[in-house]
Amino acid sequence: MKRLWMTITLIALLSLIFAGCNVGQISSNISDKDYISETLILFLAQNAVAHFWHVSSGGKIIYPEEGYLETFYNNDIEYRYFGEDLDSMEKLYRYLGEVYSEESIDEYVKLANIIEFEGKLAQPNADGGDLRMWEAAKIIEIDEKDNKKVCMLEVPYPENVAEAELVIVTIEQTKGKNWVVFNIPGSF
After folding, report:
1. What is the DSSP letter of 126?
2. Which among 91, 96, 10 has a CA at the least distance from the CA of 48?
């Protein structure tokens, strides 16, 4: 009896293991990066916003003892240097490229007046912020065409601040099969 029970258990375990292998192979073929779920779309949009604000704030800036940023003027515009993590075009493109398309980053660099000055990357010295609660964003609608998705998101504000905002986020699958945001950073 004990031997029969062990045989049945072994057969059941082996069946589960082999079934699990097939399921894994099927699911990896389905995902093959051609599919993106609503959860991942929201994550990508939230991550894009976080990347934009990290860049807008200047990156990881180490303030001098005086507590003031080093600024300079170029063409009558006050600039500040980026922190070490974003102090070159290569680093900026690599960081934003985690979630944005290269075309979007090119356009953003132009629009945001990001420049290289004395060997370091700099941006106009300005303040900003965003009260929207991206962690509570919801997808309202998705228009899909081939490897492109235009998503309408509803992004709430804190209670009694403002009505939720509708935001359009366009994502596309790159030749490398990664999904990236095609909006210009900061445009949503």
Report:
1. -
2. 96
8 Å CB contact between 157 and 164: yes
Phi-psi category of residue 75: left, alpha or beta, with phi > 0 → left and psi -120 to 50 → alpha: left
The single-letter code of the amino acid at 184 is: I
Domain parsing of the chain, residue ranges: 38-124, 134-181
Structure confidence by residue, pLDDT tens digits, 85-133 = 999 999 999 999 999 999 999 999 999 999 999 999 999 998 778 889 9
Give pLDDT tens digits for 129-142: 888 999 999 999 99
Q: Give the whole-angstrom CA distance, residue 116 versus residue 109.
A: 11
Give the pLDDT confidence score for residue 19 in this predicted structure.
35
> Who has greater pLDDT, 27 or 142?
142
Q: What is the pLDDT of residue 130?
A: 85
Residue partners of 44: CB distance under 8 A and separation at least 6 = 36, 99, 169, 171, 179, 180, 181
Phi first, then psi: give them for residue 166, nearest 5 degrees: -90, 130
Mean local confidence (pLDDT), 69-80: 90
Tokens of 139: 């997808």
Point out which residues pair with 150 in neighbouring strands.
143, 170
CA distance 92 to 104: 13
Topology (CATH level 3) of domain 38-124: Nuclear Transport Factor 2; Chain: A, (3.10.450)
Q: Report which DSSP code applies to 83.
A: P
Q: What is the pTM of this model?
A: 0.74
